[in-house]
Task: structure prediction
Amino acid sequence: MANRQALRELQTRLADRLQAARTNTSQGASWLAVQVAGHNYLLPLEQAGEIFSWPGVLRVPYTNTWFWGVANLRGSLVGVVDLGAYLGHPIERTEQSLQEVSLLVVNPALQVNVALVVDRLLGLRGADDFISTAIEPAQDAPQASAGIVAASYTDSAGGSWQVLQLHQLVQSPDFLSIRI
Result:
C-alpha cells in the first residue's frame, strides 16, 4: 500500500512539473524522460499529456499484440498501446509488473485518444542534460523510416536516449491500423 501511495505522489509531482514546464520554458526542460522495455526515450513535453497509474484494460479481440485494449481514464475511453512492443521491444508482463507501469496519455491536441504504456517515468530533461549533440537516427531503423525517432542523445553516464515524435507516431498508418 505504501508503494502505491509513493507511486501516486511521484506521478502527481511529475504531472505538476510537466505542467510547470509547459508554462515556463526558462527551466530548459524540453522532454519527459521515460523508460520502455529497457530503452530510454525522450518525449516532447508539448506532445505529452496526463500520466496515470495502471487502471486495468478491457482487452479488444483481433487486434495487434501491441494494442492492449481500452481503459477508462477520467471518464474517457482511450486506446492503450504497449509502446515497447510497437517499437519492436516486446517484453513479458505479469500482473505484478503491470502494477508498476504508467500510462502516458498523448496530448489531446494531437486528436488521438491513446495512452502509451511506459515502464518508468524518469523526470524532465533538457538539452543541457546531455553531453553530445543530437545525432540523426540510423535510416535502417523502422521507427526512423516513419519519422518517429527524431534524434539520439548521450547523457554523461553514457546512456543513449532517443527522441520520439509523438505527433508522427499517432499519424503513422501502422499505428492507426490496430487490426491484425
About this structure: DSSP finds six helices and ten strands in the chain. Strands lie at 31-36, 39-44, 48-53, 67-73, 76-82, 102-106, 114-118, 120-125, 149-154, 160-164. The helical segments are 2-23, 83-86, 95-98, 142-145, 166-169, 173-176. Residues 4 and 87 are 28 Å apart (CA to CA).
